[in-house]
Specification:
Layout: H1 8-16, H2 34-40, H3 46-54, H4 59-62, E1 68-73, H5 85-104, E2 107-112, H6 118-128, E3 134-137, H7 144-155, E4 160-162, H8 163-183, E5 192-195, H9 199-210, E6 218-222, E7 225-226, H10 237-240, H11 251-254, E8 260-263, H12 272-276, E9 283-286, H13 296-302, E10 307-310, H14 325-334, H15 342-357, H16 362-368, H17 388-402, H18 413-423, H19 426-441, E11 445-447, H20 453-464, E12 470-473, H21 476-485, E13 496-498, H22 506-517, H23 524-533, H24 535-544, E14 550-553, H25 559-566, E15 579-586, E16 589-594, H26 604-620, E17 626-630, H27 644-656, E18 661-666, H28 668-672, H29 674-677, E19 691-693, H30 697-710, E20 714-721, E21 727-729, H31 736-747
Parallel strand pairs: 1-2, 1-3, 3-4, 5-6, 5-8, 8-9, 9-10, 11-12, 11-14, 12-13, 14-21, 16-19, 17-18, 17-19
Antiparallel strand pairs: 6-7, 15-16, 15-20
Helix pairs in contact: 5-14, 6-7, 8-9, 8-15, 14-17, 15-17, 16-19, 17-18, 20-31, 22-23, 23-24, 26-27
Length: 751
């Protein structure tokens, strides 16, 4: 498998484009009329102000406080980079805000406080506290982080959570619950060794003790060795709380007969000899980043019975904080919690552990390219498990309600779980699944237009993301010059540049082309010019002969022209069943539009074919198809000759006996809006349509471009379906990201 690679240039461009940073603010109310302005601000805003002043609890009803978290740091311990200061920490804090939104639909704002004084820091946070429903502390060095968190917890009436401490602790606890379950041991009986007595380490051991681990069975080590009673060197009050009576002085000694090792220290801190000395079925959580204390390969080499977890995504059992903090805050915010207490953290850990023991949904297996089953290599759920959003927050909320942390308890817990499911953005999980499938496929992708910088950036990204091999059609010197101009000069050695001059297959290509075109007015000279000089035709010929697994083209020419050229090699036209389907992604919703590429003016039979092809594309994307034949009329009214074919098309599908939902004809609002649909109880659609079949290509094009320009929808496609080989045609205005997405679709053979 191609190794994933990230360069400095790519990282910087990601944070620079399309706009600097990683998040923005958008309005949730209309601001189009003078009346809107009057309601949003003066004089209308005075009414909720007065209500809140009289009853402060109403702030959760009339403002965004109940779904707003502050991600706050002073930048004194940024990742593994050290003290970068407040400004140096901002990209990390922005990233944390994005994760809150992506995984739990929690709005958050990053705040960087320019002080290393704990008193000043606490004062600043406390003063801005009324704005937020919760505070997430991040990347603050020890011991100041302990002081800050404790003081803010005491002085503020909203949840204060230091993720570097307690986020790590929660995921660690979840994994340990299952690891001990597999090894047949109980937490109150096991000997636990912790290496690393910083913020995360102390939090881990404290949470495990609150779950039943015995103080005398927990040995904590730091750079000076074992923390024992009577030790004075390198001690502080937080370490002292975990000092034990023991003759052990070194990590090596402590590891003898240990059941559990927890590492939040440094690479290489644990040797194979140490692992050998551990008890049967040892549990090793080597969580140092970016490199663990010992790798799983090294541990399993001497102890095949070991259960190993790390902080890395390229090994099984990743201890990833994103499994915890978004859902902890989601549950805490939804009960208007005063705090996130230990029972809420434990509830989160237990819910995660229970989830890992259940059958893993197919979409998760698809996303990770392998079947996941509870066992030694799967003790913690994966971050992209869609069940997390509706399983973890209810457990947290219930614990908060039972312990008195809730200001507003949830009455209907079943309804709450349903509402959480609707918060999950399906577009993100679908795109994640497609990317994973592409990595598993390792397709050799032909990028036909190697003279375009956008195409070259997409080709480089395709290869560096580990999707497979990128084959670029172009002149070597031209490709090199354009890569260097784009700041990707180091990628010249990575890409394979192919053209008519360096291929050994040109004569074979021309022979196939001549056989297809000799009765269509093309002589051998014409065929030579097409095969040797037209990159679209050359690329199609490469694909036809199996010299690549997929083809992406269209970025430099109009789609109709490109499709005509491809038809010289393949049967990619309406007569042979080809269809163009465009995916519209907007506000967490996916709608497919068809036909956007091939059929100019389809009749009812064509429309039925289009519906079937679009349904196939939907299923490739992980959607259960619901097709609506849309027009300006609904179920025969108003009567119009122009709408008649849309009325007849469902009857054609009736005769074919297809296995998906369809209905029509109907207007777009009836197709997409559940309330409008309710007016037609006889409709065969069980919910809003996710496939719109339109009367003609021009209406499809207008609809897609209108959604793109006016609503800001993300457009993927048109996805070419019904061709023997995997070919995708980009729009000429496509960005490098758009082209990469089309390459992913081609690699997954969508269509």
């Amino acid at each position: 498998m191609t190794k994933t690679k990230i360069t400095r240039e790519e990282a910087l461009n990601f944070h620079l484009e399309p706009t600097p940073g990683k998040w923005e603010v958008s309005a949730t109310v209309p601001m189009t009329t003078q009346r809107d302005l009057s309601l949003a601000y003066s004089p209308g805003v005075a009414v909720p102000c007065e209500e809140i002043a009289e009853n402060p609890e109403l702030v959760y009803d009339y403002t965004n406080k109940g779904n707003l978290v502050a991600v706050i740091s002073n930048g004194t311990a940024v990742l593994g980079l050290g003290n970068l200061g407040a400004l140096g920490s901002k990209p990390v804090m922005e990233g944390k805000s994005v994760l809150f939104k992506r995984f739990a639909d929690v709005n958050s704002i990053d705040i960087e406080v320019d002080t290393e004084d704990p008193d000043e820091f606490c004062k600043a946070v406390k003063l801005i506290g009324p704005t937020f429903g919760g505070i997430n502390l991040e990347d603050i060095k020890a011991p100041e982080c302990f002081i800050i968190e404790q003081r803010l917890k005491e002085e503020m009436d909203i949840p204060v959570f230091h993720d570097d401490q307690h986020g790590t602790a929660v995921i660690c606890a979840a994994g340990l619950i299952n690891a001990l379950h597999i090894s047949g041991k109980k937490i109150e009986d096991v000997k636990i060794v912790l290496n690393g007595a910083g913020a995360a380490g102390i939090a881990c051991i404290e949470l495990l003790k609150s779950m039943g681990a015995r103080h005398e069975n927990c040995i904590v080590c730091d750079t000076k060795g074992v923390i024992y009673q009577g030790r004075t060197e390198g001690m502080n009050q937080w370490k002292s709380g975990h000092a034990v009576k023991t003759d052990l002085r070194t990590l090596e000694q402590a590891m003898v007969n240990a059941d559990v090792f927890l590492g939040v220290s440094v690479k290489g801190a644990v040797t194979q000899d140490m692992v050998k000395s551990m008890a049967d079925n040892p549990v090793i959580f080597a969580m140092a980043n970016p490199d663990p204390e010992i790798t799983p390969e090294e541990a399993h080499e001497v102890r095949p019975d070991a259960i190993v977890a790390t902080g890395r995504s390229d090994y099984p059992n990743q201890v990833n904080n994103v499994l915890g903090f978004p859902y902890l805050f989601r549950g805490a915010l939804d009960i208007h919690a005063r705090a996130i207490n230990d029972p809420m953290k434990i509830a989160c850990a237990q819910a995660l552990a229970e989830l890992a023991r259940e059958d893993v949904p197919d979409e998760v297996a698809v996303a990770y390219g392998r079947k996941l089953t509870f066992g030694r290599d799967y003790i913690i759920p994966t971050p992209f498990d869609p069940r997390l959003i509706h399983r973890i927050p209810p457990a947290v909320a219930l614990a908060g309600m039972e312990t008195g942390a809730a200001r507003r308890p949830i009455v209907d817990m079943d309804g709450y779980e349903v509402s959480l499911q609707s918060r999950m953005d399906p577009t993100a999980s679908i795109l994640r699944g497609l990317n994973a499938r592409a990595r598993a496929a390792q397709a050799r992708m032909i990028f036909a237009e190697g003279d375009d910088p956008r195409v070259l950036r997409a080709a480089v990204e395709y290869q560096r993301q580990g999707m497979g091999k990128a084959l670029v059609v172009g002149r070597s010197a031209d490709v090199k010059a354009k890569l260097e101009a784009a700041g990707l000069g180091d990628a010249v050695r990575e890409l394979e540049v192919v053209n008519a001059a360096n291929t050994q297959h040109l004569e074979t290509y021309k022979e196939l082309l001549y056989k297809r075109l000799q009765r269509k007015g093309f002589d051998r000279a014409d065929v030579h010019r097409l095969a040797a000089r037209d990159r679209h035709v050359f690329s199609a010929l490469m694909l036809a002969h199996g010299h690549g697994d997929g083809l992406v083209t269209g970025a430099t020419r109009k789609s109709a022209h490109v499709l005509n050229l491809i038809n010289h090699v393949f049967d990619a036209d309406a007569d042979h069943g080809a269809v163009g389907v465009t995916a519209l992604l907007h506000k967490g919703r996916i709608v497919l539009m068809a036909d956007t590429l091939v059929h100019e003016w389809p009749d009812e039979e064509d429309l039925a074919n289009i519906a079937e092809r679009a349904a196939g594309v939907a299923r490739h994307l992980g959607l259960e198809p619901r097709v609506a034949f849309v027009s300006f009329s609904t179920f025969g009214y108003p009567v119009s000759e122009r709408a008649e074919k849309m009325h007849i098309a469902p009857r054609v599908l009736d005769k074919r006996g297809v296995d998906f939902e369809y209905e029509g004809e109907m207007t777009v609002d009836v197709a997409l809006n559940a309330q409008s649909q309710a007016q037609y109880p006889f409709s065969r659609l069980s919910g809003p349509a996710n496939i719109l079949v339109v009367p003609a290509r021009h209406s499809a094009s207008i609809s897609v471009k209108l959604m793109q320009e006016m609503a800001g929808a993300t457009v993927i496609g048109p996805i070419l379906s019904g061709v023997d080989k995997s070919i995708q045609i980009c729009p000429s205005v496509a960005t490098a990201t758009d082209i990469l997405n089309m390459a992913v679709l081609a690699a997954c053979k969508v269509g």
